[in-house]
Amino acid sequence: MQGADFVFRSFPDVEREYDFGFHHIFLNLPASTSFIGGPYLTEEEALEAAKKNNWIGDYNVFLDGIEPFLYNGKWYFMKAYQTATIKPLTENNISVTVQVMLDYNAVTKKMISSKARTSGKKFSSWEVKEQEGREAAEALFTFLAQKFSAEDSYVSNWILGNEVNSYTAWHYKGSMTENEFYDSYEMTFHSFYSAIKSVNRKARV
Question: 43 vs 32, 64, 68, 85, CA distance in Å?
Answer without folding.
Answer: 22, 20, 9, 31
